[in-house]
Structure formats: structure tokens, C-alpha cells
Amino acid sequence: MGHVNSDIVDRIVDLEHDYAHCIDDDRLEGWPDFFVEDCLYQIIPRENLIRKTPLPIIYCDNKNMLRDRVVILRKALIYNIHYDRHVVGNVRVREEDAGIFEVWASFIALQTDTEGETSFFASGKYEDKVVFVDGDAKFKHKIVILDTAAVPNMISTPL
Q: DSSP code of 145?
């Protein structure tokens, strides 16, 4: 668990930023492509972790579940129409095992409604595991830990 090559760190930071831009640009059909097939995506309120009841708000344990979530968002789910804006920073990378990188990053998410009003939506941190597949950085795990479960609206689009 020594120093991580700066090229690898740059590629992982790019992964985090590209992930946010994909969501913000409403390219949700491309969102699952940031993950390996056998992945884990969870959104968990920090309070649940503190209470040692890590029950997620959203739980997907493979890429097909992520694809299904996009189909549901596009075709079935009724939610407030909005535009997302993620700000991701304070990215830290550590090699956990050969080829598996632990990544931590802070995020905030803002939402702008169709009337043009922007409001704070959520903040928290990502606790990720990243691997490289054919030279591309991909999420094996993306755990979104919300600072609070008191988000102002339903969580529809990915965080």
C-alpha cells in the first residue's frame, strides 16, 4: 500500500469527474458503462452507518440492475424534472490490493428545476473501489454515503 503512480491517480480522478458529467449532462444510458459487470452501487445515509444498520436507500449489485434503473427512470418513474450539477473534489486514491484501488471523494449535488431555481440537494462522500479493464478505469464498488437522509426530494437520478 505504497505510493500510487500519478498517471493512475489522474485516470481515476478523470473517472470520478466523467461520471459526474455523465449524470449532469443527462446521458444516463451511459451511466452503467462506468461500472464493471459484477459491481455494487449503493446510496446509504451516514446515520445508518453510525447506527451500524447500513441499510441502503438504493442498492444495485450488478450492471444489469443499473441498466434497469435507467429504463425505469426514462419510462416508468414520475419525478420532478430537474437538472443536476455535481461538484466532486478531495479525491484520494490508495492501492488496496494489486489492481484494486480504494478511492474517496467528497461531493455536493445541486438541482435546478424547470423554473430555473437552483437548490442544494445532497452532500456526502464516495467510497469507491476502482479497477482497470482493458486500460479503462471502472467502478467495482461505488458507495455513496449521504451526510443526511433528509434530502429535499426523492432520489431519482444517480448521485
A: E
3-state secondary structure of 78: coil
H-type alpha helices, 25-137: 46-50, 63-75
CB 158 within 8 A of CB 57: no
CA angle 148, 56, 16 (to 5 degrees): 75
**pLDDT in the model for residue 90:** 97
pLDDT at 146 over 80: yes
CA distance 16 to 13: 5
Domains and CATH numbers, the chain: 6-146 (3.10.450.50)
Region 30-41: mean pLDDT is: 98
C-alpha distance from residue 131 to each of 85, 87, 115 (Å): 26, 23, 40
The answer to whether 94 touches 128, Cβ cutoff 8 Å, is: no
Convert the pLDDT of each residue in 116-136 to its tens digit.
Answer: 999 999 999 999 999 999 999
Residue type, 21: H
**E strand map for the chain:** 35-45, 58-60, 82-97, 100-113, 118-133, 136-146
